[in-house]
Amino acid sequence: MVGMLDQCEMMQIRRIMSLVLLALFLLSSISGLMLFISDLVYPPGGGRGQGQERPKRALVSAIHTWSSIVMTIVSVAHIWLNRRALAKYLRLS
User: What is the pLDDT of residues 4-17, one digit of tens each?
Assistant: First the structure.
């Protein structure tokens, strides 16, 4: 069929999607840990270092939020690409 990807191209796309998901997961995990640790070191109510720490926290929070959103979108695409295998795993087909 015209416009259909062959099996080799699909495997390459799946590999790339998996690597992108891994990178986004690591980015989201690291930024989430940074946010968690910053709450332990610099409590939200104020105290030491509040003026310098908050802009960094906003940046890390934005990175965490956007990497999580993109990871969700890529995950849905990954599930769609692997829908036949998932149906076999779950014995739906």
Answer: 678 888 888 888 99
